[in-house]
Amino acid sequence: MKYLRQKTHHYTLSPRAEPAMTVIPGETVIVETLDNVGNRVNSEMDKDKIKPPLNPLSGPIFIEGAERGDTLEIIIENIKPARDFGWTGQTSEWGFIEMGSPIWNIFKETIPTEIKICRIQGGKVTFPLKNGKTIELPLRPLIGTIGTAPEVEVQSTTPGPYGGNMDCQEVRPKNRLYLPLYVDGGLLYLGDIHALQGHGELGGAPIEIPSETTLTINLVKGKSISWPRIVSEDYLITVGSSKPTEAAVKAALAEMVCWLMSDYNMDIWDANLLLTATAEIECSQITNPLYTVALKMPKSLLLT
Description:
single chain; Jelly Rolls; nine-stranded mixed sheet; seven-stranded mixed sheet
């Protein structure tokens, strides 16, 4: 098993970056990642640290034999928090509550810059309240940003067909993520790990952690996909990112229809109508430059 630890990180997904590691298909690697502000937050006093640059990524990982048009399969084996705490926070520039918007009238005050330190122990995340009480939350880690290099360099904060900053709750341990490849070698980047995140990522910063993330990287030769796909225990999942939100839904829907046609020998209109009757749509995030949705198809319906 290989271990990737690096001194410099990336704030873009670039096809021109020098690989930090080379793997052969089937290899397992542990990747050390920073949190979304580069591990600069250590206490509630570090309010001045939650600012750009944001979303440092580890990698890129070069996959031997990978070519443009292939598909990368990533098995997320494990996500281990690298510290015994995570943090969540807000600023007037983050999240869904924007000054001047209709929802702003509910709050009628300036959004404060604020940090909460959340302790992590025994599979639990402790969320402190200002009234002195705490709420125990489950530790449910996920990879906020993971993607392959597109043909043209993009910011690490932006999601797209290549993956990127999807903040999708289904990019979590034991699930299989499939990403399209645009350049030879694939060039896989990852970072922005969350100990826990609600659907929508409404406030802009869920519980941010550095990590040791274990991945097994496989290659599907000669198979092309257009958007990220995920296989969980119970669902087939496609991920779309765009603005407005309905454009992201359309991308995820088109990808799922293509999946059902190619892998389940389904007629295009049968697939469309089946999804109309059974699909589940989750809003992954509405805070990044493009919004992300996950369209979920129950696997149990495809086993008959």
